[in-house]
Structures are given as structure tokens and as C-alpha cells.
Design a protein that fits this description.
four-stranded antiparallel beta sheet; about 25% strand; Jelly Rolls; IPNS-like_sf; alpha+beta; metal-binding; Fe2OG dioxygenase domain-containing protein; iron
């Protein structure tokens, strides 16, 4: 067990480093200085979840993981060769084929909010079609580790102008977390359900 724990902590450390690099690249893609997203602590609140899906000989009777988008800033996913992950794009579900040695990176709802739609979160699901056990490891960067946070999130001011108005109201992190978990996976499109800014208000 100790060997497994050490390996898991080392893995989490390496993925945190990868996340920091990705946040630098995403900052630059938005036209900001490379450290901007880490300066506002998007790389904090790291949560690592290991998923195990047992063999499913009757997939028509199983749910898998239903349609949803991730609530944080960024998700780095490692999946095995079994597959089953799908993303929703252009009104259809598309398989995400496993690629040995590759990670899957998902934009989360909070990054959509602060980037003012510069980046869009992606709906996804997992089908229970595996005839062998399926394992995946998801690393989430977000605020969900601290539901008492007093941090406020809103579109980044440097991304706004007279021609690019804010699309979302500012939101308290704790309120956002409550909202996200109150919705859960039950809505057909919980892709992004924070209040949209009414520019006439």
C-alpha cells in the first residue's frame, strides 16, 4: 500500500506540473501574460479521482457516467485502452479513442466563465460498454476542494472592452459550488448554467 501511495503522490505532483504548463499556454492564448491564470490561482484546488468501471456484459442495462461538463477550470484525464469516453460536439456524440501515453484535457465551466467564452467547456459522458475492467484517473483543478472560499470569479477584465462585454455575472466561489452540485448530472444540458449577463441591467 505504501508503494501505491508514493506512486500516487508522485503522479499528482507531475500532473500539477503539467497543469501549470497548460495554464501558461492558455494564458498566452488569451493574450495575457503566461503567469496570469496561475496568478489568480486557477492551478490550486487540485483533486485526483481514480475511477474503476467493472466489466459490463449488458451495457443496455447500465448508465455509465451521464452527460455533464466539469465544474472547475481544467481536467487532465488519463484513460486506459478500453475507451468509452465521448464528447458532445456539433449535436452528436463522438468517441474519444484512447491513445497510449496521451492525456485528455477538458476545459471546465469556470475557465469558460473567467475567459468570457474565450474557452468553452465540453460536455462528455462515459458509456458502460466495456467487456473488461476500465480504469481512468482524473485530475481536476478548481475550487471544489474549498466550499468555504470567499473568492469571487468573473470575466477577466483584460479580456473585456466596449466590443467584448462580460457574458457572465461575477459569482462567489461558494455560491458557484452550491449551484453546480445542486444541478448534478440530472439536467439534460448542465453544460453551463450560471446566469448569463443581461447587459441591459
Amino acid at each position: 500500500m505504501l508503494i501505491f501511495s508514493n506512486a500516487l503522490f508522485d503522479y499528482a505532483h507531475q500532473v500539477k506540473s503539467l497543469g501549470n504548463t497548460l495554464f501558461e499556454l492558455l494564458s498566452e492564448a488569451l493574450g495575457l501574460k503566461p503567469s496570469h491564470l496561475t496568478d489568480i490561482e486557477c492551478n490550486q484546488g487540485q483533486v485526483l479521482l481514480c475511477h474503476y468501471y467493472p466489466p459490463c456484459p449488458q451495457p443496455e442495462l447500465a448508465i455509465g457516467t451521464s452527460r455533464h461538463s466539469d465544474g472547475g477550470f481544467l481536467t487532465i484525464l488519463l484513460q486506459d485502452e478500453i475507451g468509452g469516453l465521448q464528447i458532445f460536439i456539433e449535436d452528436q456524440w463522438v468517441d474519444v479513442a484512447p491513445t497510449p501515453g496521451a492525456f485528455i484535457v477538458n476545459i471546465g465551466d469556470l475557465l469558460q466563465l473567467i475567459s468570457n467564452d474565450g474557452f468553452r467547456s465540453v460536455e462528455h459522458r462515459v458509456l458502460a460498454k466495456n467487456v473488461a475492467p476500465r480504469v481512468s484517473i482524473a485530475n481536476f483543478f478548481g475550487t471544489h476542494i474549498d466550499p468555504t472560499s470567499t473568492r469571487i470569479y468573473s470575466p477577466i477584465k483584460e479580456l473585456l472592452s466596449d466590443k467584448k462585454l462580460p457574458l457572465y455575472r461575477e459569482t462567489l466561489a461558494s455560491d458557484y459550488i452550491k449551484h453546480y452540485y445542486s444541478i448534478g448530472f440530472r439536467c439534460e444540458n448542465c453544460y453551463f448554467s450560471l446566469p448569463v449577463m443581461n447587459c441591459g441591467m
